[in-house]
Amino acid sequence: MLRLCGFPVSNYYNKVKFVLIEHGIPFDETLVNVPIKDPACFADTPLGKVPYLLTERGALSESQAIVEYLAASHPDKRIFPADPFDAAKAREIMTVLELYVEWNARELFPEAFFGGKVSDGTKAHVEKRMPRALDGFKRLARFSPYVLGDTFCIADIAAFVHFPITALATKAIYGRDFIADAGIDWKSYVKRIEEERPAAKRVSEERKAFIAGLAKQG
Fold first, then answer.
1. Exposure check for the chain: N or C terminus, fewer CB within 10 A?
2. Which residues of 126-160 are buried (b: 16+ CB within 10 A; e: fewer)?
3. Residues 131, 182: contact at Cβ < 8 Å?
4. Contact assessment for residue 8 and residue 203, using Cβ atoms and an 8 Å cutoff
5. Could you tell me the pTM of the whole model?
6. Domains and CATH numbers, the chain
7. pLDDT tens digits for 150-168?
8. What DSSP string runs through 8-39?
9. Alpha-carbon torsion 109, 106, 50, 158, what sign?
10. Strands 27-31 and 2-6: what pairing?
11. What is the residue-averaged pLDDT of the chain?
């Protein structure tokens, strides 16, 4: 059986987890926190990142590589749209969301979430780049009602896991929700997905339970 390694606060971990649950692919979970300290783990995740997936043929790291593997090894699940152009559009908008929107916001995470500090230069750089990245995302997105139109797809899974943490990071650093400021009603969108998709509800509930458990530990 597939084994997903990581922790349920990671948006990229939850991206893969959502895909597995949504498409009924059996898997187990192993809690692996970062920074990874066990040298043996680096054989499975060369950069010490989560998530990574243990398969019968070996390990895979990087969430998109894992999703592509799942799609190729379970063609009957239709993880990507069947139409080649629609599938490419899903990959396109996911790339824009992850490489330009979420990755920009990720530079803020040390101060936004982990008690560290981010330089004023980094903050200014992110503040300058984020509106352009979000404008590009909006040019591709439809939200009618799903990211790419009238059908739920893998792009919605990516948006569901990346919107909240990106918005929270910008709010923590600048006092403004950059996604909402860009005219994207992400809170209503995420709420609807959670209400419609049992997989989304499970991912969200297990993330919240994990955070609550950490809080109890002090």
1. C
2. bbebbeebbeebeebbebeebbbbeebbbbbbbbb
3. yes
4. yes
5. 0.97
6. 2-77 (3.40.30.10), 84-217 (1.20.1050.10)
7. 999 999 999 999 999 999 9
8. TT-HHHHHHHHHHHHTT--EEEEE--SS---G
9. positive
10. parallel
11. 97
